[in-house]
User: Which sequence fits this backbone?
């Protein structure tokens, strides 16, 4: 198979600091890839390496089959949209958008045509003579994307482009960027620290931590089958609950903090110490099929209106339950907690890998 971008065993050192460790990613033409992970894990470094703004220490990066190692940014056919999109304040929208083409002294007709098409695509046609200060945050963000689009690149690179926008606009722009990606039949690599953004926008999500890829796959693969405790806790909101437990020899797990037993449906050797992972949305105060039930105390209730998060103490460990709607429970209540056994996750306590 021919990939649009291939990253092979990429390493990046900043002096003695190992910022990217043996990174391997293959990206198909037309796909939308999200790089996600906590602050400082190397997302921007990886993106800047693709753009040619950062030198690699070892490994290879190929775009459309050609190694781009050592090639300057302008020879890579990629366009990058940054978080701080810093438009030129004294230039109107049109001149901000076609600045790079004017620098390259492209023919006037071509500049005009490409600017016109990009403005149309982004709904900016009526704003071409406005200065940035007369635009809303979302409009400015679209101009920043316009600057990338007019270059007609093979690959779009986005580094947290929406983090300066308010929540509602961010949700709107997510779907705008996704639609744009589809309309242009582009290949996009999108950096975000927001796992919800990654899950909703991308067809392939790469989860990084401390310069290492912890797991990559489709959004639902990561949600359904997290390879380790870190990915399990990072993907999903509210985050997965973890309870420390030890396997007994009679096919049960015993919570370490108490002698509460949880039945399980996996082959785990007696004596093995694990984390039991349970997603808030797989817990319920109502019985279901193939559930197991344990006692819990309600220690808090948080409501968003549509969802209620019930904070419970299970054997003195905090556990969050997500309930669509409004549960009949109050702080201080003793309740029966129903756990959907098929949806439990187990992680080895030592390696933190899925058990
Ligand atoms: N020029 C540099 N010199 C030395 N260390 C650097 C340099 N640039 C980045 N780093 C380090 O490399 C690591 C990765 O940085 P990077 O900017 O890629 O993180 P990030 O995942 O984009 O984080 P954020 O979500 O905060 O933007 C960090 O620990 C950072 O301090
Ligand atoms: Mg960054």
Assistant:
């Amino acid at each position: 198979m021919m990939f649009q971008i291939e990253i092979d065993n990429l390493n990046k050192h900043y002096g003695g600091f190992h910022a990217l460790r043996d990174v391997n990613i293959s990206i198909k033409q037309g796909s939308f890839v999200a790089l996600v992970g906590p602050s400082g894990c190397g997302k921007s470094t990886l993106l800047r390496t693709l753009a040619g703004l950062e030198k690699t220490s070892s490994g290879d990066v190929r775009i459309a089959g050609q190694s781009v190692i050592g090639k300057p940014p302008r020879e890579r056919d990629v366009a990058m949209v940054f978080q701080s999109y810093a438009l030129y304040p004294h230039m109107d929208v049109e001149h901000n958008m076609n600045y790079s083409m004017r620098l390259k002294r492209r023919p006037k007709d071509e500049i005009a045509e490409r600017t016109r098409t990009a403005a149309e695509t982004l709904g900016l046609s009526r704003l071409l003579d406005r200065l940035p200060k007369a635009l809303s945050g979302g409009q400015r963000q679209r101009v920043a994307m316009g600057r990338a689009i007019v270059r007609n690149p093979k690959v779009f690179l986005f580094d947290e482009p929406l983090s300066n926008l308010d929540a509602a606009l961010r949700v709107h722009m997510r779907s705008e960027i996704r639609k744009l990606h589809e309309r242009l039949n582009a290949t996009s690599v999108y950096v975000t620290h927001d796992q919800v953004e990654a899950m909703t926008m991308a067809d392939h999500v790469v989860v990084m931590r401390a310069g290492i890829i912890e797991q990559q796959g489709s959004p639902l693969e990561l949600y359904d089958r997290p390879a380790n405790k870190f990915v399990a806790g990072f993907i999903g909101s509210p985050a997965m609950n973890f309870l420390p437990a030890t396997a007994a020899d009679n096919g049960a797990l015993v919570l370490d903090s108490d002698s509460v037993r949880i039945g399980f449906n996996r082959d785990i050797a007696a004596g093995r110490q694990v984390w039991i992972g349970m997603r808030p949305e797989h817990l319920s105060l109502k019985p279901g099929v193939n559930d197991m039930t344990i006692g819990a105390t309600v220690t808090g209730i948080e409501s968003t209106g549509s969802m209620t998060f019930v904070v419970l103490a299970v054997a003195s460990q905090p556990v969050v339950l997500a309930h669509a709607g409004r549960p009949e429970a109050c702080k201080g209540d003793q309740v029966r907690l129903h756990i959907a056994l098929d949806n439990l996750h187990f992680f080895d306590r030592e390696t933190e890998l899925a058990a």
About this structure: The chain has two domains: 3-233, 238-348. The CA atoms of residues 233 and 240 lie 5 Å apart. The two ends are 32 Å apart (CA to CA).
